[in-house]
Amino acid sequence: EEIAERGGGRCFFTADALEVPRLFTQDTFMVARNTWITNAVQPLFTVGLATLSDTLTTTAPNVGGYNLCYLKPDATAVALSSDENSAPILALGRYGSGLTAALTAEADGAEAGPFASWAAAPEFYGALARYCAGPQRNTHNNLLAQQQQLPGAVRINLYTTPDTPDPTKTEDVKINLLRHRPGTAPLAETIPLTWSTADSLSADIPLNGTDTLLATINWRDGSSETLPPVCLPYSPEHAPDTDNYGAALLADLARATRGKALADVSEIWQLIPRSRQPWPLAPLLYLAATLSLLLEIFERRTSWLTTRQHRQRTIAEKTPLPPKPRGRSRQLKNQTPPVNTATTPTPDAPPAESPLVRAKRRAAQRTGGKL
Question: Are 147 and 73 within one domain?
Answer without folding.
Answer: no
